[in-house]
Structure formats: C-alpha cells, structure tokens
Design brief:
One of its GO terms (molecular function) is acyl-CoA dehydrogenase activity. This is Flavin-dependent monooxygenase. Keywords: Monooxygenase, Oxidoreductase. The chain has about 400 residues and is α+β, with helices and mostly antiparallel strands. About 50% of the residues lie in helices and about 15% in strands. It is built from 12 helices and 8 strands. Strands 1, 2, 3, 4, 5, 6, 7 and 8 form an 8-stranded mixed sheet that branches.
Length: about 400
C-alpha cells in the first residue's frame, strides 16, 4: 500500500509555481481590497501583507534558480505583477520594485551578490534611479554621500541601491558621450536613513520616501555599472533598461483593468444617479461610454502583449541590448500610460458624485494612474526619441 501511494504521488504532475502564485493572489485579494484605506493611511504596505507576498514568492520571481529563485520567463513575471496591480495600485507598484530589484542585483559583483542571497532568494531590494549621490574615488574604495528621492518599498527593503555620480578630487569623471560617469551603490537597508517625505497625490501606500547616506566609505565591490556586460547567463539578465518600459506598461494596463472592474461593480449595485431616469447599467449613455472604454482597454491589452512578446523573443535570441528597442519600449509605455489614464478619467466621470469620496476605489485608481504616468519612463516627452527613430528608419529605407 505504501509503495502504491509513493507511485501515485510520483505520477502526479509537478505544481506550476506561477499558477500557485496567481492562486495565492486571488486568496489574498479580498483582504487587500478591504485594507486599501489602511494602506493609504500608513503610506506603506503593512508588514504582514509584505510577508504574505514574500511567502507567495514575489521577491524570488526573477532570482536565478542557482540561488533558489524561480527564474520566471519575463512574460510570466509580468502576468503576476499585473494581477497584483489590478487589485491595488500601491501593491502593484511594490511588486514591480520587488521584481526589478532582483534584476538590478544581478549586475552586482559576485561577492556582493552572494551576500544579498546568502540566506535565501526571498530578498526585498529597492532603490532610487536618480543620481542623487556622489561616489568620490579614494584609496580604499569610494566615499558615498547623498540624498535620493522616490525610494519606493524602502520601508520593507532588505537591501537598497542608489545611483551616484562618480567623482575624483570633487569633480565628476566623464563617462560615455561626455556625460558624468554613473555607478550604483548597493548596501544593506540598515546602512541607510529613511526620511519621512512621502506625502503624495497617489500611490500613497508605496513608501516612496527619500533615502540618505551620510558620508560613508564603501568598498569598490559595492558599486556596479548597469551598462557593463552581463555577469549572468540567461535571457533575463542580458539587459535591464529594456525591461523597464514594459514594467510601467504592465502597471498602466493592470490599473486600467482594475478601474473597469470597479466601475462595473458599482453599476451592478443598481445605482441610479440624481436626476437620471434609469439606473446606470440601463442607461444607453452609460452603455455607450462603457463600450468605448472597453475598446480602449482591449487595444491597450493587445499592444502590451505584442510588446512583451517582441521583447522576449529578442531576449531569447540574445539581441535585447539595443538602444532602438529601448525607444520602442518607451513608445509603448507612454502610449499605454496616456490611454489608461484616459480610461480612469472616463470611469471616474461615469461613476458620478459617489466617486469623489475616499471610500470609492475609483478616485484612488484615478490618482494612482496619474501619479504612475508622471514617472520618467512614462513621460510624453519620450515621444521625441520615438519620432527621431521613425525619421531615421524612414531615411534608411529610402536610401
């Protein structure tokens, strides 16, 4: 009997970690929705929810299998990020940070990388990509000091990184194209100070405070160059910058999906607005606008899927480190942010006066999407590079 049980267990299919995480997210969904106001008021994701996400495997999604991670294909990881974003903007944002943090860490020196993951793969890594610090070259390494904004997830991070301008004798060292040389410093979270500055219009629960380092001597191994050749094999680790626009596009689409979910939930309550002849769901005006919104959402979903698939094919082929692909990714991120902000605006307007209350998820979606669209990777000014690329390609074809 025992032998039959063993044979039976061996014949069972192996569990799919991605499906397990998605199922865990669905189990957690009601609690996240109920605690949305708590998350905003605390201006951070509560520690117990962070630990639930850690247990589900959020922080190990893109960690190599050699370190005990899941090493998901990038599209699979984005599916998980989108599922969390659809529930709550702040949860979705910290899931992006949790995913990209492990990709940043893959560029670190082998010694530091081993330290980061010495106790296992479930490590929360965050940082700030604005070059708010300086790294002065000295005999024993670098003297680091600075103040960095928008350090999302710093309240629950285990390790934190910050971009620094490298200096010598107090002067910036020239890097590529004559711009100042920039390196990333990564240190345990306990070495950083967090300034309580995150009082924002949206994404309030992300804990995106300022972080500071008071002049600190750091060994050279704790600084790394994101543009250097990859230290690890595998399609996830050949490039980093090219993934960033896709993360922002995923956030925008996940938020738009959640916004439409919230509008439909409101309509299904039978709500009838003041002076309206019929309930919202029976109004042809509402139905018309909902149809238009649904078409825009479908277009956004399709564009995101095409861009993700295209980038992943290039990653598998080992050709992702291409500046033109960065511009193509930016094109999708900006268009998706603009389109999804429009969806949120339209949903908020359709909901009527009930949407203005703090208790309405629609006003929170509206604020979160607008704040997300302010990020450098989603700013409309990036269309300039997109236009230049279109002109160059047209000229090349003509020639």
């Amino acid at each position: 009997m025992q032998l039959q049980e063993k044979i039976s267990k061996r014949s069972l299919p192996l569990r799919d970690p991605r499906e397990d995480i998605l199922a865990g997210i669905q189990e957690l969904a009601p609690e996240i929705k109920v605690r949305a106001a708590e998350i905003e008021a605390a201006r951070r994701v509560p520690p117990d929810i962070v630990e639930r996400l850690r247990y589900l495997g959020l922080f190990r999604m893109f960690v190599p299998r050699s370190q005990g991670g899941l090493e998901f294909d990038f599209p699979a990881g984005l599916e998980i990020i989108k599922a969390l974003t659809r529930l709550d903007g702040s949860i979705g944002w910290i899931s992006i940070v949790g995913g990209v943090g492990s990709l940043f860490a893959a560029a670190a020196s082998p010694d530091v990388y081993q330290r980061v993951y010495q106790d296992g793969p479930d490590v929360a890594i965050c940082g700030s990509s604005q070059p708010g610090g300086t790294a002065e070259r000295v005999a024993d390494g670098y003297r680091i000091k600075g103040r960095w904004p928008f350090a999302s997830s710093c309240t629950h991070a285990d390790w934190i990184g910050g971009f620094c301008i490298v200096t010598e004798n107090g002067k910036p060292i020239p890097g590529p194209q004559g711009k100042p040389l920039v390196r990333v410093v990564v240190l345990p979270a306990r070495d950083w100070d967090i300034e309580d500055t995150w009082y924002a219009a949206g994404l309030k629960g992300t804990g995106s405070h300022h972080i500071t380092l008071r002049e600190r001597l750091v060994p050279e191994t704790h600084l790394f160059d994101l543009e250097a050749p990859p230290r690890m094999s595998g399609p996830l680790y050949h490039a980093l910058r090219q993934w960033l626009p896709l993360l922002h596009g995923t956030f925008s689409v996940g938020m738009a999906e959640g916004t439409v979910d919230d509008l439909l939930a409101l309509a299904h309550t039978g709500r009838q607005q003041l002076y309206a002849a019929v309930p919202m769901r029976d109004s042809e005006t509402f139905q018309y606008e909902l149809g238009r919104i649904s078409a825009n959402l479908k277009a956004a979903q399709a564009f995101l899927e095409v861009q993700i698939a295209s980038h992943w094919r290039r990653a598998l082929a080992g050709t992702l480190r291409d500046e033109d692909l960065m511009i193509e990714g930016a094109r999708s991120a900006v268009w998706l942010a603009t389109t999804c902000v429009g969806i949120a605006d339209a949903c908020f307007a359709l909901a009527g006066s009930s949407a203005v209350y703090d208790s309405s998820p629609l006003q929170r979606r509206l604020r979160d999407l607008h704040v997300g669209a302010q990020h450098a990777h989603a700013q409309q000014r990036l269309y300039v590079d997109v236009g230049k690329l279109a002109l160059r390609r047209s000229a090349d074809q003509a020639g």
